[in-house]
Structure formats: C-alpha cells, structure tokens
Design brief:
This protein is an alpha/beta fold. It folds into two domains: about 60 residues; about 130 residues, no CATH class. It has four helices and ten strands, in the order αααββββββββββα. The protein has a five-stranded parallel β-sheet, covered by helices on one side. The protein has a five-stranded parallel β-sheet with strand order 2-4-6-10-8, with no helix packed on it. Helix 1 runs antiparallel to helix 2. The radius of gyration is 32 Å and the shape is globular.
Length: about 250
C-alpha cells in the first residue's frame, strides 16, 4: 500500500530532467592547424648558403667562433641539404632571428660593400684547348667555377681585392692544368681528388679571425689541380691590423 501523500485530485509532478554537462566554448583562433603529413623539407639554395656563410664569417670576426669551429661549420655548410639543417649551424649565434650584435659586422677589406656581400654571383672560367687567366688587381666574386679541358687555367689572388671573407672556387680539370695562388696571409683549404691525376692544395690557416678564407673544391682526371700561397705577397691592410694588435 502506497503511503506517499499527494494533493487531492492533483496531478503527480514529473521528475526534473538531468542537467547536461557544461562544455567550454572553443575559440577557433586558438586551434593550430595540424601539420601536413609527410611534407618535404625545403631544399637550401645558394642564397641560403650565402646567408649562413656570412653569419659564420661575422661570428668568426667577432670572436664568437674559433678558427677550428668556423672551419668545421663551413665544411658542413656545403654538405647539408635543407634550410632547417643549415639553421642548426647558426642557432647559437646572433642574426636576423636573434638580437643584433653590439658591433655591426662589415665585410673585411671593403668598407663600401654591404655586409651581405655580392650575393650569388659566379665567375665562370672555361678553357678548352686554350688558356684562361685571372691575375693582377681584380675583384673575385663569392664563387668561381673553372672548367679546364686540354688547356690551362690560372687564378692568381695574390693582388686581388677581397670584398667578402669567404671565396669558394670549384674546378674540374680533364687533361688540363689549373693553378691557384693566394696571398701568404690568407686561409686556404681544399677538398677534392683525382683519377690518374693530381689534386694538391698547400693548406694554410691564418690565426687572424678576420682573414679571408679561400676554399677549393674540385676534381682532376688525367690532369693537374694545384693551389698554394704565393711567397712575398700579403694583404697589406691585414698586416697592418696584426701590427696594431701587437702594439696594443
């Protein structure tokens, strides 16, 4: 027997509905889009390598990198393939993505040239059963490409005007002869080899962090590639800087 009392003649009140769980509204602007699956990494261009090379050169000149660290990173600069990989070489250095250094960096030996250097300009030399020469008072570009087939190529930098710190020379010699000369107080490095030929670089490391760096890369097939400092020739302004440092 139901003992619950209800008002006489009145309807039984319905049960109250269960409260729905509260949900906070989502702001679409705060939701980051999911990255595209399998998106390929962006390949590095010559301009990207020039930018990273300039940052490394500035860091060397400011004393942020030692000569050994600069050499290691510069070698890796031409071995890495993507922009993300290149950025790892300068992530601990100031640059466009970091606060600017206290002293603005300038390209060595050329106050009138912007810090960005001459961009991606390439000086091309070709000698097929002939000769091709660069010597005297001239201005080498950031990169020089030389192809020598049954001929002779001479690149003499001993009296050149260096408008950027790093200069790269790429050579291919097939039954030919390529000779490269640099001042005594310039850093010279080489990477290459030969097949039934000769690839010889008299490497030289200048302790001055502001000294220009010449990098030779190449290959000799039944030919000869040779690079060496030219005795008796030095960059005069670099020698003056060294004397001033010793006097201080």
């Amino acid at each position: 027997m139901d003992l619950e009392k209800h008002p006489a003649g009145g309807p039984v009140p319905p049960a109250a509905p269960a409260a729905a769980p509260s949900v906070d509204p989502v702001d679409p602007a705060t939701v980051a889009p999911a990255p595209a699956a399998g998106a390929p990494a962006l390949r590095a261009s010559d301009a990207d390598r020039d930018r990273i090379g300039q940052l490394l050169g500035d860091a060397l000149a400011e004393g942020r990198l030692t000569a050994e660290e600069h050499a290691e990173r510069l070698d890796a600069l031409y071995a890495l393939k993507t922009v993300a990989e290149l950025e790892t070489l300068v992530r601990d250095l100031p640059g466009p993505h970091r606060p600017a250094p206290a002293m603005p960096a300038a390209a060595p030996y050329a106050p009138s040239v912007p810090a960005g250097g001459l961009g991606g300009e390439v000086d091309r030399m070709i000698a097929v059963a002939s000769s091709n020469t660069r010597r005297g008072r001239w201005r080498p570009r950031p990169r020089t490409s030389a192809i020598c087939v049954l001929g002779d190529v001479e690149i003499d930098l001993s009296e050149a005007v260096f408008e950027q710190q790093v200069i790269e020379i790429q050579v291919v010699s097939v039954l030919g002869n390529v000779e490269i000369k640099v001042p005594e107080n310039v850093t010279l490095r080489g990477h290459g080899g030969g097949v039934l030929g000769n690839f010889e670089v008299s490497t030289n490391e200048n302790p001055d962090p502001g000294a220009p760096v010449v990098i030779l890369r190449g290959f000799a097939l039944l030919g000869n590639v040779e690079a060496h400092p030219r005795k008796g020739y030095r960059l005069a302004d670099l020698a003056g800087r060294l004397r001033k440092r010793l006097e201080d």
